[in-house]
Amino acid sequence: MSPDPSSASEDHLREAAQRHFNEGRVRQSRDAYKELCKLNRDRYLPDLVKCYKAQIDDMMRAGRDSDARSIRVYLKELCGEEYAGPAPAAPVTATEPSAPNAPDLFQKNPNDPPEAVLARDDVLAALHALCSGDLDGAPSHLQAIGLRSPMLPWKLFVKGLCAYYRGDNTQALEAFKRIAPNTPCARAAQPWTMLIENRCGEIKDVDGKETLMQGMCLALGREDLAATLPRADYLWSTGRYRDSLRHILGAPGFPGVGDRIASMLTRFYFGMHVEMSGDRTDAYIGEIGRLFPLNLARPAHGQLQMARIGALASLGTEDRIAEMRETWHVYLRIRAALKGPSPLHEALAYKAIGKSLLVTRRRPDRFDFFARHSQSTVADRLAASREFLTESIEVNDGDDETWLLLLELLKRAGKKSDFNRLLDRAVAKFPENKNMLFMAGVHAVKRSAQLKGIKYFERALQLDSLDTTTREQLVLALVSLGRHYSGHTMPAYVQCMDRAVELGVDDSSHLSLSRCFLLARFAAFDFRAGYQQAAQEHLTRALSAAGDPAVLHYFTWLVFQCYDLPQNVCLDALGCFERARSTDRPLARWMIDIYEYAVLLSFRGRFDRERKRIDEQIHRELDRNQLARGDARRIIEYANQHHTDAVAKKTIKAMLKKDADDPLFRFFDCMRASNAKPAVLEHIERTAVKRHDEEALSLIRRELAKRKSEPGFGGFLGPDSDDDDDDDDGDLPDFPFSPQQMREAMEALMGTRSRRGRRGRPRF
Amino acid sequence: MDPYLVLDVSECSDDATIRRAYLAAVKDNPPDHNPDRFREINAAWDRIKDTKSRAEFELFNAEPGISSPFEALVNAHRYSRNTRRTPPSFSALKEFLQQCSKTKK
Question: pTM surpassing 0.80?
Answer without folding.
Answer: no
